[in-house]
Amino acid sequence: MNLTLKVWRQSGPSDSGRMVKYRVEEVSPDMSFLEMLDVLNERLILEGDDPIAFDHDCREGICGMCGMVINGVAHGEQVATTTCQLHMRHFEDGATITIEPWRAAPFPVVKDLVVDRSAFDRIIQAGGFVSVPAGSAPDAHSLPVRKEDADSAFDAATCIGCGACVAACPNGSASLFTAAKITHLSLLPQGQPERLSRAKAMVDQMDAEGFGGCTNTGECTAVCPKGIPLDTIAQMNSDYLKANAK
Amino acid sequence: MAVTGAVMVLFLVGHMLGNLKIFISRDSFNDYATALRTLLEPLAPYRTLLTIVEVVLAVSVVLHIWAAISLSRRAHAARPVKYAAKKSQAGGYATHIMRYGGVTIVLFLVWHLLDLTFGVVNPKGPVSTPADRMIAGFDPSRWWMTLIYLVAVVMVGLHLRHGIWSAFQTLGWANRNRYKALRTGAALVSAVLVIGFLAPPLAITFGVVK
Ligand code: HEM
Ligand code: SF4
Ligand code: FES
């Protein structure tokens, strides 16, 4: 396949950046999106150009590093798929593809498509943990958990912190990420002692980072590669309101 | 947003039911308007309850708009650089209908109060009965007025279609098992309000109510 790419190039945080057009030829439909970029980068290096910087690590959809906005959709239009798991067969031969970094003030661009997602780390540091003595793993049935709670907690726990929810949200809100982390812990027995203080600390940190407010548009869950459901946000709101009522 | 919105939805239900009295008779509608003002008399002076309701509503409207403005300012601050290409994956309904629709509703509200509450832009003027103002306002010759109300009320309906379920989500009362019911319920309440609010003006314009 032959493609035209329009890629955001920005040499560093202080550069104002611009879209640059590239032709990529002989792309195999079996390549992943990142492999296609690798091919382009090898050529750019041979030509003495600066390769396009993008984040990636596992390339198997579990680390959350590889976020980019492809044709206006975070991680591309393929549902429940990270950029690294997106394959070129989903694109038409001859297509023009626009590639941009996550756009959010709390995610400043480091270079090209790489953004700094430390704001997420600070939200986790604010309360995304349980303060229990961590010995060896307990016996499976020593602490009963309702099946529905276990399932919902697990669904929430699959969040890989990629930031697509923020990138897609018209408000630039980090509610889905924060809610996934809060819900994951607040549904399990180990998370109960700090349940309300955790919700308060994490939501306050999210606001302090400069993310926008949630207006329940549902854009986040539609692009989330892990399909984190919207009701995690209701759970977060419930815990947060209770924490503030105290 | 959720709490002030809920206050306004409750008001709208009452307001719609009140308006329907025009179908009984002008007198019935006027009596109802008088009743709103004389309720609690002689325990409290004329217009006590109505004034309280008006204050609560005014506060709700102001806080609702204030919340909307601050959300939108936070949203702009959170995305200083726009996307070159942006494709909504959830329809974009909530973003556009709520913001632009909300502004339309406010403009309508101002006009509406000048028209039917204060009567200053109404053919019958301020010194007239509420029923006279309503019937003169939607006279067949003033079909364009009915059209304005129609657009505005449909806007309110679209606003509430998202607003009602969204309020449950914001207050933390929603979950995956309730979404379907909440969305259907929101659409149903909105549809009932739209139909109930539009029935009197349309009936007047088409000469069913004179
Ligand atoms: C076509 C539909 C509507 C009709 C025929 C209608 C009619 C009226 C009338 C006759 C009054 C004056 C009542 C009185 O003086 O006792 C009134 C007041 C009012 N209406 Fe409407 N209305 C409509 C839709 C709406 C909508 C959609 C809203 C909200 C956005 C609204 C908000 C108000 C408010 C805030 C007042 C003042 C209430 C008060 O004085 O306490 N109306 N309306
Ligand atoms: S909620 Fe989904 S989109 Fe947001 S960070 Fe987690 S995995 Fe990514
Ligand atoms: S590179 Fe790890 S999720 Fe894509």
Give an overview in words:
The complex is a heterodimer of chains A (246) and B (210). With 246 residues, chain A is α+β, with helices and mostly antiparallel strands. Chain A folds into 2 domains: 3-111, Ubiquitin-like (UB roll) (Roll); 117-133 and 143-245, Alpha-helical ferredoxin (Fumarate Reductase Iron-sulfur Protein, Chain B, domain 2), CATH 1.10.1060.10. Helices cover 35% and strands 11% of the residues of chain A. Chain A has helices at 33-46, 118-127, 147-157, 164-168, 175-186, 195-208, 219-223, 231-245; strands at residues 3-9, 18-24, 69-70, 73-74, 96-100, 109-111, 114-115. In chain A, helix 5 (175-186) crosses helix 8. Chain A is elongated, with a radius of gyration of 20 Å. With 210 residues, chain B is mainly alpha-helical. Chain B has one domain. Chain B has helices spanning 2-19, 26-38, 48-78, 93-117, 130-137, 143-170, 179-205. The mean pLDDT of chain B is 95. At the A-B interface, helix 7 and helix 8 of A face helix 3, helix 4 and helix 6 of B. Iron/sulfur cluster is lined by residues 159-165, 176-177, 180, 224-226, 228 of chain A.
